[in-house]
Amino acid sequence: MTTSISPTKAGLPPAPPVDAARRGFTEIIAPYAYITPFFVIFAVFGLIPLLFTFYVALFDWNPIGEHVFVGLDNFSGLLGDTRFWNAARNTVSIWLLSTVPQLLIALVLAHMLNHVRLRLAVFFRMTMLVPYITSVAATAIVFAQMFDRDYGLLNWLLSLMGFEHIDFNQSVMGSHVLIAVMVTWRWFGYTALLYLASLQAVPRAIYEAAAVDGAGGVRQFLHISLPALRPVIVFTIVTSTIGGLQIFTEPLLINRGTPNICGPIRQCQTLTLFLFEQGFTQFRFGYAAAIGVALFVMVVALAGLNYFLSTRIRPVKG
Amino acid sequence: MKFRNVSAVVLTVTAALGMAACSGSSSETSSGASAGSSFEFWSFTGIDAKGSAAEYKAKRPDVEIKLTEVGNAQETAQALTTALAGGKVPDLVLIQGDDLPKFVQQPQNFVDLRTLGADKIKGDYLDWVISQPTAKDGSIIGIPTDVGGMAIAYRADLFKKAGLPTDREEVAKLWPTWDAFIETGKKYTAATGKAFVDNAATSVYSQVVNQGEEKYYDPAGNLVYEQSPQVKAAFDQALKAVAAGITAKQSTFTEGWSAAMKKGDFAVIAAPVWMLGSIRDNAPDTKGEWDIATIPGGSGNWGGSFLAIPKGAKNPKAAWEYIAATQSPQGQLDHFAQARSLPATPSVYKDPKLTSAKDEFFSGASIGTIYTDSLLGLKPFLIGPDSTTIGTEFTNALTNVEQGKGDPAKAWDAAVTNIKAAIGG
Amino acid sequence: MRTTRPRSGDRVRWWAYALLALAAFACLFPLYWMFIVATTDTATAIKLPPEIVPGGNFFHLAGLVFSTVPFVRSIVNSLVVAGTIGVGQAVLCALAGFAFAKMRFRGRDALFLFVVLTMTVPTQLAIVPQYMIISALNWVDTLQALIVPGLANAFGIFWMRQHISSAISDEILQAARIDGASTWQTFWHIAFPLVRPAAFVLGLLGFVTAWNDFLWPFVVLKSPEMYTVQIAIKALQNSFNIDLGLAMSGSFLATLPLLVLFVFVGRRMVAGIMNGAFKG
């Protein structure tokens, strides 16, 4: 992979006449050489492992012991495993709780940020990217503290206002909300910037014409902004589906009393965490691979479905 | 301009990586060239491996120990498994008792310590402890470092405020049985309005279940967790504690647990000997306010660890020399003085160094005798490959009830169902 | 209700500012809280009512962080990993993007379609075999196990191709060829300088992603001297002493380098994300 970008060549002045045949050959292979690194790395660390997952999933595979071929047993085991369905339910729930509000908040903020006369625009835009550069691990630690049942900031505020403490970590819904809050916090600003970019591509004149025709803010938003945003919304829905179904670090870090399963009854264990638990703490590589295959199918299906649905839905004419 | 320099660096790095990729396997062996007097040691946190290593270095300045505290015990065992699978192993590794059976089942991954002289010293250790690292084929893959005698740590100052006795003898008389323990808790909670004990899963279930003669496996190695009377008794005892409303609902080793300990939001923790260091670290300001009393039921063992040498170790000899020197009866006694880890070598249990040891953090309690007494007359049970998993499912079910999320009447069945899913049977 | 409409030229309404300020507060407060706990004593995190101003304990806690885990080493490791990935992605993606945008070769369109399709494949689900491959290469517990897989970025190639297509006219390249420049020279001396801002932002995003990556380093790295900062802050949580001040201090120290970087390049990052990230 390094031959194509030989550093000596780069420093030379424009080439003196070289022998044509050789140059011709180099020129022919050059483009292939330029794209080779990607394909090699993707093959070795992406594609081959992915295909190999399907193979490993057919074994009872102990990394420090035997590998016994078991056919589809891992998959039938998975279908009858309540922990798997629990993790699947949690994953979908957390994904919905984090994606829907995130996209809505981003939409509203992008609309706000799109004012020409907005002061402090640069400040607002930059601030919204701060969560994105904060690591998930740091985010999980600080949010877990703020949402703690007995000693957390939020519950203290709630009790000041006369409410009961909410047990975010141990209850099913609470832990899902907590994780969703972290995911939303991390991504809403980034998504808002993507939306803002698309909004800015809409010529001002269109809005002005609409205003002249008597269209108010909401109508302008529905009939001009939203259609313009459609492709980028599809894009963010698909990417947040792919990302949302693979949430791992937050549930790993928020419930330390029950490592790797996120709560005594696995109330916030996601599929990726279940995969990790089975693979790297129980060392059932075959079973973990089967979970990987199942998750893969889910991601591709859901992303496809999302793409299909969101390209079909068109704003109402009017 | 600047960017160009950077890119030159990258090209070099990329080229170097390309070469590293080709030569990856060969560079591995050459790095151990000067391994004659150094070895790599993986341990876990909380047991003062640094202290042991330093003590050894004082005696053997020629030896270099590359010590890594990988994480907690469970994580260290996981790291060891991935290392065994990945081929890059340490020379010496500490494994906690509950994690050991999985490795004993695959003895081919470890050096049979008999080849290094384990036969000669195995008589130094408690029988039921040295039997744990002994594989079916007779090979010995680990040497015991300590055992986990049991007791109860309590806040004497908080007991006083609640109108309970504070003297450790009298406190022990408050709870000859676990039922009496719960009754004491009710009195405490009624007097103070605060929780008595940190949680039911660790401080009740995991104690009671470790006081029996049979836990999750029968002596022949068959799974009996469903029928074992001790397991059911421990489970029901924990449910009673939850129903009594005396637990702080703080799971061990969590942020809330640590915070509640600092603030005195509970007064009692079941404290196997290795827990003492954790109390000291988490609530340093409570020094002198704690004391230690005999555990209800009197005896039991929870914990204990083993040192093993993986097959691929580069310097098994140096690792063995370390084991032989630090885990001799005298070595374990010295380490007890240092780090409060209880020797697995009964020959020193009457040594004045152990019997006279007092701990100021715990109001001068004679920890040496309290904990060794808890081991006397102990009839140990078999730990099996799935003991950790089974125990985790039971405590999780209890925690769930304690948090008010689960029905106590259904908790046992739920736990059993989960165990079957987890261990596939 | 006032009659003015939020047309582009109109005054911004107060509630727009209120909403934006609320969002900005939400973005910054967790970091501020992290800082507070990281600068006061351990008990602050659990003190109610909470402290709201920083204390003077920062260096004490930071010292604890440095003595509990090899934190300096972990920052160096993260810089090496994220830096190499950032720069490597910028160059490799520009190169591949250049080939796809401006060169003619057999199979080009099919290969490009393949690159785009790989974006939809969640390859990190194959983590078990990935670990096996890393084992087979003897790369467990090494930094190249993080760096090399991180160099491939299909999205980056897609992105650079778009930029190169639109930013560089064929005429310039033609002229260079007539002057006798090789393909490489054309790329390095003409094309790359023109798309350097885009490549810079791409590298920056690659850097941030690599810096914050957790799952893969968590699986691959074993010994503390190989830890990246993210794994180091997880390790801080691990000890039997559950010290929130320590964990928060570590989190803050792990975030600080990126915050500093962000002060300098944040504007370009925002602009980069908005300019190129998505053009429907």
Describe the structure.
Chain B: It holds the Pfam family SBP_bac_8. Chain B: It comes from Microbispora bryophytorum. Chain B: This is ABC transporter substrate-binding protein. Chain B: Keywords: Signal. Chain B: InterPro entries: Bact_solute-bd_prot1, SBP. The complex is a heterotrimer of chains A (318), B (425) and C (280). Chain A has 318 residues and is an all-alpha fold. Chain A has 2 domains: 54 residues, no CATH class; 238 residues, MetI-like fold (Orthogonal Bundle). Chain A has 14 helices and 2 strands; from the N terminus they run ααββαααααααααααα. Chain A has a two-stranded antiparallel sheet with strand order 1-2. In chain A, a hairpin with a 5-residue loop joins β1 and β2. The N terminus of chain A is likely disordered. With 425 residues, chain B is of the alpha/beta class. Chain B has a 5-stranded mixed sheet with strand order 2-1-3-8-4. In chain B, strands 6-5-7 form a 3-stranded antiparallel sheet. In chain B, β1, α2 and β2 form a beta-alpha-beta unit. In chain B, α10 runs antiparallel to α11, α11 runs parallel beside α18 and α18 packs antiparallel against α19. In chain C, α1 runs antiparallel to α13, α2 crosses α13 and α10 runs antiparallel to α13. Chain C is mainly alpha-helical and 280 residues long. The interface between A and C is large, with 115 and 104 residues.
